[in-house]
Amino acid sequence: MRYIEYTVLTTTEASDAVAYLLEREGAVGIAIEDPNDFLFMNKDKHSWDYVSSNLLEGLNDDVKVIGYFNGFVADLEESVMGLKKFGLDVGKGQVIVSNIDDGDWANFWKEHFKPFRVGYRIIIKPTWENYKGHSDEIIVEIDPGMAFGTGDHETTFLCLQLLEKYMSQGVCIVDVGCGSGILGIAAAKLGAKEVLCIDIDDNACKVAKDNTILNRVDETVTVRKGDLLDNAKVKYDIVIANIVADIIISLSGQALDFLKNGGYFISSGIITDRKDDVKNSLKKHGFEIVEALTKGEWCAIVAKR
What we know:
Elements: E1 2-10, H1 12-24, E2 29-33, H2 35-42, H3 45-48, E3 63-69, H4 76-81, E4 94-101, H5 102-107, E5 116-118, E6 122-126, E7 138-142, H6 154-166, E8 172-176, H7 182-189, E9 194-199, H8 202-214, E10 221-225, E11 236-242, H9 245-257, E12 259-271, H10 275-284, E13 288-295, E14 298-304
Parallel strand pairs: 6-7, 8-9, 8-11, 9-10, 11-12
Antiparallel strand pairs: 1-3, 1-4, 2-3, 5-6, 12-14, 13-14
Helix pairs in contact: 9-10
């Protein structure tokens, strides 16, 4: 089967919004090629040891958001440029159209997804790669399919680092917008007693469930379809939300309601320009800001009830 490939040349700041736009237009698959993901990883020697040496060849300054469609999409470039009204720098905003076989887009990115370390103990390993770990390492195997979450994007990377730092044995955790399930699986392997993964997308829920089975944590991790915390039933020790700044702001009050006293809200997917907006919202709802980490153009915030 042949698909039409639409490649949007944009920026890191606008990449998630462009991906959402492509999904709204009916994309059957989406990929993001952001050179900043690899350039910033290159600065972290603990991660770069696991990445192939030729990875940066051919990368330029444009972020490519690629959508695969069954048919023609009208006025896509105009829609991309329309994101400017939300204050986003869309960069060139140019759209490149080409035809492609389904086997190519489904597998081309796999050659660049290699095992890598996050924090002190966590190793993210794609299912198709071999890796012999040490006894003190926690290996999370991931096949993201068409769901977000390989761990190498700055937003997920930061969440994994903070999760390792702030969680303790026997805690209960909820991951809002779980994507591939990578954060919930890591939490289970770090010793969480109970993990709830929530996503509004059917495909993400399926991928997350499959990954929990692959990692043998499906008895600890429950995957549910839902919107934000609407499907949460109890109070948690940690709430994780790796989404976007505006949704985190709107989620702040609900997150407080579902946290135990002294619990942590770990939020990511925040462009650094929006860091203060998120912090102010968290403070307004009664949170204490504990820590903020940045990687590239992205920020993650730890707030405490």
